[in-house]
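The following record pairs a protein chain with its ligand, zinc ion.
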Amino acid sequence: MLVLGIESSCDECSAAVVEDGKRILSNRIATQIDIHKPYDGVVPEIASRTHTEWIKDVVEGAVSDSGAALTDIDGIAVTNRPGLIGSLMVGLSYAKGLAFASDIPFTGVDHILAHMYAAQLEYDIEYPFIGLIVSGGHTIISVVNDFDNIEVLGTTIDDACGEAYDKVAKYYGFGYPGGLIIDKLAQKGDADAFSFPDPSLHKGEHRYDVSYSGLKTAVINQLDQFHNAGYEKTPENIAASFQKAAIEMLAKRLFKAVGDTGITKIVAGGGVAANSYLRSLLSEKNNLNVYFPSMLLCTDNAAMVAGIGYHYLMRGDRAGLDLNAGSRVAGFKKNYP
Ligand code: KG4
Ligand code: ZN
């Protein structure tokens, strides 16, 4: 089955053709990074306007790259939540129009579940596993029972992990987007220069939750307070110390989830899953099986949407033309074991 995936939830305009939920035949990703750079962040109105200009070429390009014709496409999967509503509407409306005009079945896909599926495009990973979604909008530690079934163990109680990266980078003028830039700076810095705090949230029912607002405030407003004598306050040292605190907070909760559930398989997804420190910290644990998607599949892309969409379409899920976009995730339970 050939599925055309369409992704436009934030600032990446992407379309892909994936065979049987596994084989990527094409994956076009048109990024708006340069357009939003002057603002040090994504401007929603500009993002949706740009999607409107790009979507036709991106979708047609992805179909042509795949070597298939539109008439060969068996189903369309489109991200319809969560994300920026104007951006989502562009991909969703385009998918609806194409599905209707070409008489192709289509389904809506949750962007978070699609990130969780991304690693399945490159590996055969049996369920259940511990899932880690870390992106600009979400930070979720969960037990993943199936492609459409995740039990949330912990989330952020304030900012998402990637958001903290972006805000720290914006404040210090490191550049945009912040995550990759801080990751690169950190590799040249000394993480002992500052001892930023880890919030003690792991009490009672909140033991898998994280919080990035306190860390962000510490890095931005209380730098001197956490500075260790003998180290310079360079961008590299700030980046390295922030990155250590941000990533080790996640790792601590993840290892706790592994210990409590007995599940030793971890699968990561989302933009921050591209982080070099997170990848090395988890990969050096010999008692764990850790899967990271390749870099291109960590950040927003339509291959993950087409991949998971195959499973919905295979079991007969069909969206109607009344399918709406939603800014928030739907249907996740927060379960504390
Ligand atoms: O998944 P994604 O492309 O979009 C959302 O769904 O949010 O994630 C984007 C986020 C941004 O916050 C970006 O700064 C962060 O992922 N990011 C990184 C790295 N690469 C991207 N954060 C840390 N280290 C990286 N190497
Ligand atoms: Zn994303």
